[in-house]
Amino acid sequence: MGLSRMRRHGGPHIRVRAARPMAEHGAMDQLRRIVRSAETVLGPGLVGAYQHGSGVLGGLRPASDLDVLVVTRQSMTTRQREALLAALLAISGPAAGGRPVELTVVVQAEVRPWRFPPTADFLYGEWLRAELTAGGPPRPEPMPDLALLIAMVLAGDRPLAGPPPAQVLEPVPPADLARASLAGIAGLLADLAGDTRNVVLTFARIWATVATGEIRSKDAAARWALDRLPPEHRPVLRHARDLYRHTSYAAETWSPGLRSAARPCVDEMLFRIRAAAADRDDLGDAGSR
Most exposed: 77, 137, 173, 211, by fewest CB within 10 Å? Predict the structure, then answer.
């Protein structure tokens, strides 16, 4: 099974606009359950657990996941994978009475010293529920956008267990941050029809990241891109941003006109992304994707 989480970046090499919003009470309870499960399953193999994503970059929105990175001393055993998957299936999503959970596990030695592309040891996301339930727990696989996640963890500095992330993880070089952003483009284009809101917003974030070296929240990236998009493409991005701010997935709607305009909007942002990548001298072949 492929580990793919390109939806949805620390250290002194990367600028990240992190905030410290207050999480809602239910989300905090859910985070505590996630951490307790990881501690129970991993025992002394757990190095630390860290929040990232919307909870760090600007605040949880109606459809936001709870994003957690777990760092371990060694790769998980099959029994540990099965136990952690069972725990997350019982904690994550509407069926469990909470927000969707996205939990990534990485072995510390796989990312310290830093190398690209990094390898994730385990990935759970609510969008993978059916696949994981049918096929069993995930195995280790390369995951380029783990670079973005680690950068967010370092910037957010939100330990849920263990030492501060700067004592556990190394900064991600700017070129690898851009490479990670570019690596997910093909998958995003394939997902446009079924996940229009997130794909449109992620293209805005990729554009902002490649052009400026700064990781923004989806909201802030949309604002940055709206100032630079031609007027005819702004309604699609504006609608995606408004959905992100105010609307659950169940209540999401797109007019026929906006839906038909989504691909041209994405194509325009993709053109701008490629131009920004071509202007950089640190990407090599990745800049021509």
Answer: 77
